Amino acid sequence: MNGFSDHHLDEDAFGASKGGIVSSFDAFPKTKKTYLVQGRNSSAWTVTLILTCIYLSWSEITRWYTGTTTQSFSVEKGVSHDMQINLDIIVSMRCGDLRVNMQDAAGDRTLAGDLLRNDPTNWAQWTGKKMEKGMHELGKDDGVNPGWEELWDVHEQLGKAKKRKFSKTPKLRGSPDACRIYGSLDGNKVQGDFHITARGHGYQEFGEHLDHTTFNFSHIIREMSFGPYYPSLTNPLDNTIAITPTENDHFYKFQYYLSIVPTIYTDSPSMLPLLESVNRNPKAHPMKSVFSTHAIKTNQYAVTSQSHTVPENYVPGVFVKFDIEPIMLAVVEEWGGFWRLIVRLINVVSGVMVAGSWAWQLWDWGLEVWGKKGRRRADEMGMLGTPSGTPAREAGSFFGSEKKKQWD
């Protein structure tokens, strides 16, 4: 019994293909295309998996490069005595009519006007169309100039914290009607008061009386910081402008209340205990080589303001009252290491590939099951929509009987 020949099957269908020299080298004969079932095209799914791997891998690399930033508070350790104050302010009065002084809780009075630079300038050179970009009123447009709390990328800030010089005053045009007061000075690290007043008002002084109509304490604060001078680090009072409501408000008082918090920014967590314990100026610190490259030790502050007119028996001016909090804020940025990044990338790529393979198999299986159900429904319906169990001749006899009745 030869079942193969009984079913009229040809052995040539399973043999080697004819018609080419290359076929003689084919050790494994191929099946003809008529006996093959072509699978579904998965090229689009493969491209999707590749793009997903690239996106997730790039996200991991970006997260590794920026690092993880943590913030912690602790009681300030060590003993410090001095604190540097950096100021850059333009007041709408002539330099000769202004007095700048500082007095702290220890009773020391500093003639800041003699220690800071006083450059005559023109108020119009700093306002109007020539106003610097980002200038705003305190409490308004805060989203334009984010404060220290938004400086998450410590590594980027460490790279910027190298420029420590004040910019030059623009060349004077016309007669001076304003004064730029800028520079750095050292004071006691205690509660204090920094104020700018008019000549002969606030402190007893011999000389010609200053006409009250010349008072105008409208001002622009370009820099107000405590600690080493880092121009790239934005503080709450930086780039703020305050103007008197009217030109006739000569006796007007601007008052700022600052709460200063010592702060350390570092990308070296292992050095943090030593940076916290030794509370000194970075130039005299035993780890001074670490500063500007791996750490910034400075101060940040919160500020509230109040401005109003005062009677003529009061002292008008710009007053900055600051208090130092006994806590230390540490902002630390860490990286996971290069080999840890490689492991995470391998996990991401392999996870996407495995999950994608499972998803494709489930999709293929679902389509196959759905196709079988469709074919089963088609098999259950016979010719002309009759059930498959109804014989064809019965259907034919039905039509024949109807025809016979008509002839009768």
UniProtKB/TrEMBL annotation:
Keywords: Endoplasmic reticulum, ER-Golgi transport, Golgi apparatus, Membrane, Transmembrane, Transmembrane helix, Transport. The keyword Oxidoreductase does not apply. It comes from the Eukaryota. It is a multi-pass membrane protein. Residues 380-408 are annotated as: Disordered. GO terms for biological process: endoplasmic reticulum to Golgi vesicle-mediated transport; retrograde vesicle-mediated transport, Golgi to endoplasmic reticulum. GO terms for cellular component: COPII-coated ER to Golgi transport vesicle; endoplasmic reticulum membrane; endoplasmic reticulum-Golgi intermediate compartment membrane; Golgi membrane. The keyword Kinase does not apply. Its main location: endoplasmic reticulum. Residues 23-110 form the Endoplasmic reticulum vesicle transporter N-terminal domain. Pfam families: COPIIcoated_ERV, ERGIC_N. Residues 171-356 form the Endoplasmic reticulum vesicle transporter C-terminal domain. It is found in: Endoplasmic reticulum membrane; Endoplasmic reticulum-Golgi intermediate compartment membrane; Golgi apparatus membrane; Membrane. Plays a role in transport between endoplasmic reticulum and Golgi. Belongs to the ERGIC family. This is Endoplasmic reticulum-Golgi intermediate compartment protein. It comes from Setomelanomma holmii.
